[in-house]
Amino acid sequence: MKRIIVNLISTVLLAALGMGICSCSNMPDLFKAEPTDPDMTGVPVKMVNDFLIVGNTGYELYNFRQDMADKYASVINKASQTAPAGTRIFDILVPTAIDVTLARSVRDQYNTDDQQQAINYIYGNISASVNKVDVYDTLRLHRDEYIFFMTDHHYTSRGAWYTYIQFCNAAGLSVADLDNDFTPTMFQNFHGSFYTNTNGYETLNTPDYVVAYIPKATNSIKITQGDGTPLDWNIVSDVSGWDSSSLYNAFIGGDQPWSVITNDHVTDGSSCIVIKESYGNPFVPYLVPNYNKIYVIDYRHYSKISGKHLSDIIAETGARDVIFINNMSMTRSSDLVGKLSGLVG
Asked: pTM of the predicted model, to two decimals?
């Protein structure tokens, strides 16, 4: 599998990204066929601390919960119902790696539910007034690329790029130019959550790498931290030398309650609010060429600094677009769906 040897070619890949050779295409995938499952014969498979370890790659099982799926849909519907007139609501549900990159011959042997069916169910219960951005098929089409980490539960910036393209298509926005609007950077030797939560399980010793794209228009972000103090930071930070488990924090300062990005090169007054957990972090930088203002809310932490509800925030900021972006594992969590509900009000 390409993902097994991906770290061995990472230096070459960065050079290629800088020259535009390996940059992700903006073209639609009209004629792209989904890659076939690799032959998994002889690849070791084991459950370790509730995680599925296949060769040198970790996966999180997914179990559908209808009660939480129904509540999630109702929260998105309420956001649409209570938003000021003219607000566009977008909902992006990102499947996790077990449904995208893992061979189904392996996946089907374990108690994990089909995320495409779950997404269809949730979107079927969300109002037609909400713009549903379905990225499942797009990520499947690119499943042989480095779109999910091997040692961590997040997707990579490449996976986020394909998600961003689908959002632009739904929103009627021009897709940014990956070569001309961004500068790529790379951070080596990332050991993520699967590695940490399995106590450094032996087959997860092959480290990942984090590629990030720095917006050329601005790399500045103003953050309000959990204790209420302000922080001037970078949209993409240099995390070289940081602990190997923390390199995903290169994106937007990690999981902060409230952040604001201003791109003075966009003068039309356009603005959006991104409501996210950590899957939103590598997605946000790609929005910079499209908006004058980007407001970012991590709904898990926002109540630490404010008791405002979403409708108030929309009214105060004047944002036209509100983008909910979550990974599918979130939609089965009573804690996370409850916190999202608290923000919406």
From this structure: 0.93
At 247, list the tokens.
């390199």
Q: How many residues does the chain have?
A: 345
Give every CB contact of residue 159 below 8 A, 6+ residues apart in sequence. Answer: 94, 139, 142, 147, 148, 282
Q: pLDDT, tens digit, for every residue of 77-107?
A: 999 999 999 999 999 999 999 999 999 999 9
Nearest to 341 by CA among 2, 56, 82: 82
Alpha-carbon dihedral sign for residues 91, 97, 103, 108: negative
CB 41 within 8 A of CB 77: no
Domain region containing 151: 2-344
Distance of alpha carbon 144 from alpha carbon 149, whole angstroms: 12
Q: How many domains does the chain have?
A: 1
CA angle 8/191/139 to nearest 5° reads 70
| Alpha-carbon gap, residue 148 to 153, rounded angstroms | 8
Dihedral angle, C-alpha 298, 221, 150, 15, nearest 10 °? 160
